[in-house]
Write a structure and sequence with these properties.
13% strand; 16 strands; five-stranded parallel beta sheet; alpha/beta
Length: 448
């Protein structure tokens, strides 16, 4: 009995079936062929499958119906759709319906082989349990984070572009990394780029690379981010910050699966999965004319929302424990205990800066804590009822918590130093902290 993987080909054109079967056989993959939806359903029930390739147009219906059927009854089987050349709408619709990937007619054998190889890796990934291990790094037991974990596991089995939305500091890059690490591209590069951090004049070179001498300063050939992510995942963070001219070039690269380095005569094929994120609402950016609608629909095939920390306050204890454990290890000290009043303070706070803000607050508290216990006084958080009563006369936008706390702390330290005639030991006593803690705070707040 053959131990080779088994694929189902669904297409009513004998020439296409023959080409696909020949390609698969050369990749050590057995195959069966069906010309209709009805026959495909029958074969799907007859033997365990590792892959399905289906045409969009079939005599008795659409390939999308088969995608839906497999999603419902055989969710572990990746299904790829064969679309007409240039029919982006069909490809996007197939991916939204749950297709693993798509390939366009006329079939490119190189593209087909890459697709099949990636699909077959799903079985290895599943057998190794990599997806389960990766998503455990999303800490918490709240329903909100459970839903994210379930989506990560599902999206890891697809090659569809995913847009990850959520406020700053929620962990969008972590989610992107987990999608990558849980899927068939896990052994290939994960390349993350902050689109807002690249100077406009260097964007094309950074994304697509350049040839030697193509512009002043181009002293050698250089690969771009797409080439660096070859076979893996390219994560476009803060994608809404891309200027419009770059959005056009990015759209072409995604659709053609090829890039042209600056100064090059021809395009280079690239095989990358695109994940993107932004803290802005992309739909609003499209409406305002700052983001191209066609690119929006291409990268936002599936959206995954990462909840704010205030939406999963029940996860704060486990997050705080993990953060303190990591920080204590880095500092070579025993992990401090989090007192009940400190935990109550944290769980009553709205965290506009989300998990990143929690990390910053705990880092500060770790420095101030005496006898290895973090108490509410070490956290310097206002009580929940005080947060709700912002002074009406202040006017303007609310000040971020980090700078607000820094300002209060600076003023308290200044007053204590003045009162102690700049004797730091005496000032530390007035502030109820050790000399070492005061010296650290003075340096960190730039009061020296």
């Amino acid at each position: 009995m053959s131990t080779r993987p088994l694929a189902l080909i669904v297409d009513d054109e004998p020439a296409i079936c023959e080409l696909l079967q020949l390609t698969l056989d050369r990749m050590d993959v057995d195959s069966m062929a069906a010309g209709t939806l009805a026959e495909a359903r029958r074969l799907l029930q007859s033997r365990p499958l590792d892959l399905c390739l289906t045409d969009m147009q079939l005599p008795d219906g659409s390939g999308l119906e088969l995608v839906g059927y497999i999603q419902q009854h055989l969710a572990q089987v990746p299904v790829a759709v064969i679309t007409a050349h240039g029919n982006v709408e069909s490809a996007v619709l197939a991916l939204k319906s749950g297709a693993f990937d798509f390939v366009s007619k006329p079939l490119d054998i190189g593209d087909l082989r890459k697709l099949v190889s990636t699909a077959l890796k799903l079985r290895q990934t599943r057998d190794a349990g990599a997806g389960r291990v990766a998503v455990t790094r999303l800490l918490g037991q709240s329903q909100a984070i459970e839903q994210v974990r379930a989506m990560v596991a599902k999206l890891a089995r697809s090659q569809a572009p995913v847009h990850i939305s959520g406020e700053s500091g929620t962990g969008k890059e972590l989610v992107a990394r987990l999608i990558h690490e849980s899927g068939p591209r896990a052994d290939r590069p994960f390349v993350a780029v902050n689109c807002g951090a690249i100077p406009t004049e260097l964007m094309e070179s950074e994304f697509f690379g350049h040839k030697k001498g193509s512009f002043t300063g181009a002293g050698a050939d250089k690969d771009g981010l797409f080439q660096a992510a070859q076979g893996g995942t390219l994560f476009l963070d803060e994608v809404a910050d891309l200027p419009l001219h770059m959005q056009v070039k990015l759209l072409r690269a995604i659709q053609e699966k090829a890039v042209r380095p600056v100064g090059a005569a021809r395009e280079i094929p690239v095989d990358v999965r695109i994940l993107s994120a932004t803290h802005r609402l992309l739909a609003e950016q499209v409406h305002a004319g700052r983001f191209r609608e066609d690119l929006y629909y291409r990268i936002n095939v599936i959206e995954l929302h990462v909840p704010a920390l205030r939406e999963r306050a029940s996860d704060i204890p486990v997050l705080a424990d993990f953060i303190l454990q990591r920080m204590a290890k880095l500092q070579g000290r025993v992990q401090p205990n989090l007192a009940a009043d400190a935990l109550a303070f944290l769980q009553g706070y709205a965290f506009p800066g989300n998990v990143r803000e929690l990390e910053n607050i705990l880092e500060r508290a770790l420095t101030l804590a005496e006898d290895n216990v973090i108490r509410a006084a070490d956290i310097h958080l206002r009580k929940p009822q005080e947060q709700e009563q912002e002074p009406a006369e202040a006017g303007g936008e609310a000040q971020p918590l980090g700078s607000y706390l820094d300002d209060i702390e600076k003023e308290a330290i200044r007053k204590a130093l003045e009162q102690a005639r700049y004797n730091k030991t005496a000032a530390a006593k007035l502030l109820g902290m050790s000399f070492r803690q005061l010296r650290y705070r003075i340096k960190k707040l730039g009061l020296e």
